[in-house]
Amino acid sequence: MVKITFIQHNGTEQTVEGTPGMTVMEVAVKNQVPGIDADCGGACACATCHVFVEPEWTEKTGARNPMEEDMLDFAFDVRDNSRLSCQIKVRDELDGLRLKVPAKQF
Amino acid sequence: MSDVIHTDVVIVGAGPTGLFAVFELGLLDIKCHLVDILDRPGGQCAELYPEKPIYDIPGYPVVSGAELTKNLMEQIRPFGPTFHFGHMVTELKKLGDADFELKTDGGLHFRCKVVVVAAGGGSFQPKKPPIPGIEQYEEKSVFYAVRKMEAFRGKDVLIIGGGDSALDWTNNLQPIARSMTLLHRREEFRAAPDSVNKMRELVAAGKMQMKFGQVTALKGENGELAGAVVKGNDGQSFEIVTNAMLPFFGLTMKLGPVADWGLNLHENLIPVDTEKFETNIPGIFAIGDINYYPGKLKLILSGFHEGALMAQQAFRIINPGARLMFQYTTSSTNLQRKLGVAE
Ligand SMILES: Cc1cc2nc3c(=O)[nH]c(=O)nc-3n(C[C@H](O)[C@H](O)[C@H](O)COP(=O)(O)OP(=O)(O)OC[C@H]3O[C@@H](n4cnc5c(N)ncnc54)[C@H](O)[C@@H]3O)c2cc1C
Ligand code: FES
After folding, report:
1. Spatial distance between the Cα atoms of B140 and B149, rounded to a whole number of angstroms
2. What is the pLDDT of residues B12-24, one digit of tens each?
């Protein structure tokens, strides 16, 4: 099991568990983490699963893929640590991962 | 007042479900008009995932959203459906005993005997960026679509985005705007290379500006926008003077006017029976992703099945007393004649 912590805009934290192979978005939706809308169900077609990776984790989560980079044009307040959570696969190295959820997926 | 269009059936939504309903209704000699807010058929398949593979359409080991749409269009062509794209159905009313009236935001007016709501996840609507206070400017100096180009003549136009809509409108509005600025969050553009090149030429000729960054705040009062505060990619803030802003952040599905038609709703879905897929208002059917019944699966396959059963009841409403005969397309000369394949 890989532990992932989602930090809401107001600071509340929720730590949930995922299994390697799932996407971070799927882990969030399965555990009803608020603010991860995932309208397109993980097809990298909606940008409503936007998260900010906490700085100490950006290296491990890795770089955005080109499709994700394009889709981030449709997100709001995109930062250097922005990712689409449906494009991050859960791996053992990500145990303890911390992500911020934006105030609003629009 | 526009002319009233009289037809048997109006289908709200031209996603895969609405398209295949034309086929099932067509086999029963029922003519359809389809209305969709998008500018092309296919619904989610066309808008959200045209190039992605679908693996669970019976008979197709794999087919893309775009191919499926193209094939459906081919399959329904013999029935000559009429499409009205770029229109949102805003009103649906029952008139007397037998007729329905529908109106669109673009001024179309229909009379029909049966309405098929195949509205999927709702109508596609522009995403509105959550910039604080943006609501007070909407429809006054912030617009999510260009309805009339003339409205932008002599304005200081700011367009935000890097896709086709952003680039097309930058190029089209530049000649009539007083000033034109395109703002995008990065140097790469998703839009067609042709329009990007055209935009770059305008910039090189000093006719417009291209800036990189994201809007964080708006300035102005009483709905009159005066400027946009932008955080540049270097972290520095700057201001762009504008009195007409067009953010293009793609589309999202919102239930929209469907909620106002007097139909029962269950968590934004329309409950139907599983024999006829009729709503609480007889003569109005709901098929595809928009409906709800125990065991519902939001699959294209389900929408097709629902359309076939719906068509049977639609026939009975449109042809009271007529006998409905069950036939196969494989063997019925009658059906094959309708499909244009019989000798
Ligand atoms: C990324 C992704 C992958 C998918 N993969 C699969 C898969 O592999 N297999 C599968 O079976 N399904 C899949 N689906 C689901 C499938 O796309 C839907 O089940 C299907 O599109 C539903 O079709 P529909 O015609 O009911 O609705 P939609 O495709 O949603 O079309 C509804 C149309 O109605 C229009 N509309 C709504 N209200 C109005 C109005 N008031 N006025 C005018 N127009 C209106 C909308 O603009 C839209 O174009 C996937 C969905 C997504 C997002
Ligand atoms: S779920 Fe739609 S882009 Fe991630």
Report:
1. 14
2. 999 999 999 999 9
Between A43, A73, A76, which is nearest B48 by CB? Answer: A43
Contact A84, A58 (CB under 8 A): no
CA B302, CA B296: separation in Å to the nearest integer? 8
Tell whether domain A2-100 is in CATH 3.30.420.40: no
**Residues on chain A touching B186 (C-beta within 8 angstroms):** 69, 73
Q: Contacts of residue A43 in chain B, CB cutoff 8 Å?
A: 48-49, 52
Residue A75's SS3 state is coil
Structure tokens at B15: 């996603």
pLDDT tens string B274-318:
999 999 999 999 999 999 999 999 999 999 999 999 999 999 999
Give the model's pLDDT for residue B52.
Answer: 85
Helix (H, G, I), strand (E, B) or coil at B313: helix
CATH at residue B38: 3.50.50.60
Note whether A53 contacts B: Cβ–Cβ < 8 A. no
Q: What are phi and psi of B257, to 5 degrees?
A: -60, -20
Rounded Cα distance, A69 and B19, in Å: 33
Shared-domain flag, residues B218 and B316: no
Pair (B87, B136) in one structural domain: no
Q: Which residues is B95 bridged to in the sheet?
A: B99
Give nearest CA residue, ligand 1 atom 30. Answer: B120
Contact call for B185 and A45, based on CB within 8 A: no
**CA B281, B3, B257 angle in degrees (round to 5)?**
40
Does B343 map to a domain?
no
- Give the integer Cα–Cα distance in Å for B28 and B5: 21
Q: How many domains does chain B have?
A: 2
Q: Relative to the alpha carbon of A73, which ligand is closest?
A: 2
* Cβ within 8 Å of residue B260, ≥6 positions away: B91
Examine the predicted complex and report whether its ipTM is higher than 0.90. no
Residues B238 and B265 in one domain: no
Name the residue in chain A with its Cα closest to that of B54. Answer: A43
Question: Which domain does B332 fall in, by range?
Answer: 4-124+252-338
Whole-model pTM: value is 0.84
Within 54-93 of A, beta carbons closer than 8 Å to B belong to: 69-70, 72-74, 76-78
